[in-house]
UniProtKB/TrEMBL annotation:
This is Sugar ABC transporter substrate-binding protein. It is found in: Cell envelope. Residues 1-21 form the signal peptide. Gene3D superfamilies: 3.40.50.2300. Belongs to the bacterial solute-binding protein 2 family. Its main location: other. Keywords: Signal. Residues 61-318 form the Periplasmic binding protein domain.
Length: 371
């Protein structure tokens, strides 16, 4: 019996040693242990990043616009749609026909229809603040462009309006030799216009011999209205030299003024504008047009940067409260004379135009590539 007991004890000890060795090998505690089959930190991070990007696909975006007049707005919308589609999302445009009450109603509709994100184009805080706060409270991300909105959690994009005004006004004064009579086409009540007016007032103080002889502007049907009012001013000042130049604070104003001047055969009067579209560029290239220069940001880039800012919010990244978009000065003498170009080709002739990389992150390129 003792012999059998000793043999049984020996067998039990041997079996126990095998179990311990096997467990140690699986835990990787031995010096010759095989590598663990668990995923590496790098692989885990990659899987998490991939999951984050997947969650960004299929987003529904509302674009709520105060107005969608003219080719500049049309190209801005193109930029928004292009970038959202590259990210795998969809866009619905709510146009408000320059009616702030309607714009506030459209913002409420976008909130109630369950969009993931809302882009605001222009508008005023008085009409948009309540809706923007409501959207934020509901967890809807909001990004505004060219408004005076000041709501926590809602970043703003704006053009460098004062710089654009300064660029055109400085060149106007230089071309006129610092002396002459000018017509201003401008309208109050819009954040970008108010910023441009700051530069205009400084220009007046710095150039006392540049006299403003007329000022007007209407945001409703702006091109046609400007053309009619400019025609009346030309009748009031019929002689060559009565008017030196027109400063137009919006490309829709510049188009209307330029057409009235050209029709009247008064092309000694030069037009300096702000903003740029394909249609604008064709007019500036026309040697018979009085519109000779404009300062602008690529409207498609504006749309793209606004969308990128929204997607940074979707991903939980920090975003600047205000993003100021880069702008350039475009004049006729920079452009080719042997062919017509569009804004897509403008970067070949004007340094700094188009292809903005603002708020464009590396992961966005990966998101675009996966769609």
């Amino acid at each position: 019996m003792k012999r059998i007991a000793k043999i049984s004890l020996s067998l039990m000890l041997a079996a126990l040693m095998v179990v311990i060795a096997a467990c140690g090998g699986k835990a990787g505690n031995g010096s010759n242990a095989e590598p663990s089959a668990a995923p590496s930190q790098e692989a885990g991070a990659a899987a998490t990043a991939g999951s984050d990007l997947e969650s960004l696909k299929g987003k529904k975006i509302a674009l709520v616009m105060q107005f969608n007049t003219g080719t500049f707005s049309a190209q801005y919308v193109e930029g928004v749609k292009e970038q959202v589609e590259k990210f795998g999302g969809t866009v619905k445009v709510f146009a408000s026909d320059n009616d702030l009450v309607k714009m506030a109603s459209n913002l409420d509709a976008a909130i109630n229809q369950g969009f993931d994100g809302i882009l605001l184009d222009h508008g005023q805080a008085s009409a948009l603040e309540a809706g923007a706060k409501k959207a934020v409270e509901k967890g809807i991300q909001v990004v505004s462009f060219d408004s005076d909105l000041n709501v926590d959690g809602v970043p703003l994009l704006q053009q460098d309006d004062q710089k654009m005004a300064e660029l055109t006004l400085q060149q106007l004064a230089k071309d006129a030799g610092g002396k002459g009579n000018i017509v201003k086409v401008w309208v109050a009540g819009f954040a970008p216009m108010e910023r441009r007016q700051i530069a205009y007032k400084a220009f007046q103080e710095q150039n006392p011999d540049m006299k403003e002889i007329a000022a007007f502007g209407n945001a409703s049907n702006p091109q046609v209205d400007t053309q009619a009012q400019m025609k009346a001013i030309l009748t009031k000042y019929p002689n060559k030299g009565d008017i030196t130049a027109v400063w137009a604070a919006w490309d829709e104003f510049a188009k209307g003024a330029a057409r009235a001047i050209q029709e009247a055969g008064r092309t000694e009067i030069k037009v300096y504008g702000i903003d740029m579209s394909d249609e604008d560029l064709q007019m500036i290239q026309d040697p018979n047009s009085p519109w000779i220069a404009s300062a602008a940001t690529d409207p498609k880039d504006i749309g793209r940067v606004q969308v990128r800012t929204l997607y940074k919010l979707f991903k939980g990244e920090e975003v600047d409260k205000v993003t100021t978009l880069e702008s350039v000065y475009v004049s006729r003498d920079q452009l080719p004379t042997d062919k017509k170009i569009n804004t897509t080709e403008l970067s070949e002739y004007v340094e700094g135009w188009g292809s903005s990389q603002q708020n464009y992150e590396d992961w966005m390129k990966e998101l675009e590539g996966s769609n």
